[in-house]
Amino acid sequence: MEAYVHGVSTRKVDDLVAALGLESGISKSEVSRICAGLDEQLGAFRSRSLAHIEFPYVFLDATYLKGRVNHQVVSRAVVVATGVSMDGHREVLGCDVGDSEDGAFWTEFLRSLRARGLGGVRLVISDQHLGLKAAVEAVMVGSAWQRCRVHFMRNVLTRVKRNNTHMVIAAIQTIFAQPDARAVREQFDRIVATLGDQFPDIATMLTDAKEDLLAFSAFSEAHWRKVWSTNPLERLHREIKPRTDVVGVFPNDASVERLVTAVVVEAHDEWQVAERRYLSETSMALLQRMEAAALTQAPDESPESRPLAG
């Protein structure tokens, strides 16, 4: 089981067993049968309750691999959700495998998280996956959606000639270098105006994505760098891919779930014993104080005039 989970192919497991002195070896089907013993404990992890604490920040992302469905090799979408709890620790909330990364798939996945007790979500961070924003609005009522700034930058690069990329990216990055929420929005408007004449397509992209790109600015400035992109989750996907690439083509979705869950459980366990929290207790306490202040805000006080920093 350990060998398989750590990226040793079923064929190489046979070589490993032979090297350990068992001349009869072990077949690929036998390796699969033994590894099926993981299913109960991994299934318990995927279905565990999430009601023990609130998760104000939730990260979502998807990756793809090959699997067999109805005797055909097709692309399978693997989605993983991680969250930052109110005490600043990270947890893997769930993972799933589906036919396609569409709105129905995301809605079903988010509903499964809510059914397990996921609550207190203030901000969902992801790329602009098909149907995901609508799923967040339908299932995570009251939560904001942050479009990953890194993925947005990559989209911008596809619309700009190579000799202009540095200038355009540098200009957009100044938006995220501002000291407070008001300055972020003012700089955003300045950059749109600056790029408008020479790069009208980019200016339009920015304008259309404004509220989604700047959702982070409504939260504590101490959290901005940690919640304006899906980089932390992408690092987890980079751990998944080498393990799944060893398999190549999965025989079914159950085998995908088994290996992917085993990999994310390792990350989850490491986060639980890490010396440093993803977000400090002090900054999370600040988030709670900001929310309490918002609840007591005078009716005639506008959100723009309310300080958001700590």
CATH topology value of the largest domain: Nucleotidyltransferase, domain 5
CATH C-level of the largest domain: Alpha Beta
Radius of gyration (Å): 22 Å
Number of domains: 2
User: Class by helix and strand content?
Assistant: alpha/beta
Q: Identify the overall geometry.
A: globular
Encode the helix/strand succession as letters.
Answer: HHHHEEEHEHEHHHHHHEHH
Helix content: 40-55%
Q: Could you give the count of β-strands?
A: 6
Termini distance?
47 Å
* Parts with pLDDT < 50 across at least 5 consecutive residues: 302-310
- Going by CATH, the architecture of the largest domain would be 2-Layer Sandwich
For the sheet with most strands, the description reads:
6 strands, mixed
Strand content: 5-15%
Average pLDDT, rounded to a whole number, is 86
Task: Report the total helices.
Answer: 14
Q: Write the CATH homologous superfamily of the largest domain.
A: Ribonuclease H-like superfamily/Ribonuclease H
Ordered list of secondary-structure elements with their pairings:
Elements: H1 2-5, H2 10-19, H3 28-35, H4 39-46, E1 57-69, E2 72-84, E3 90-98, H5 103-115, E4 123-126, H6 132-139, E5 144-147, H7 149-157, H8 165-173, H9 181-196, H10 200-213, H11 224-227, H12 231-247, E6 249-250, H13 253-273, H14 281-295
Parallel strand pairs: 1-4, 1-6, 4-5
Antiparallel strand pairs: 1-2, 2-3
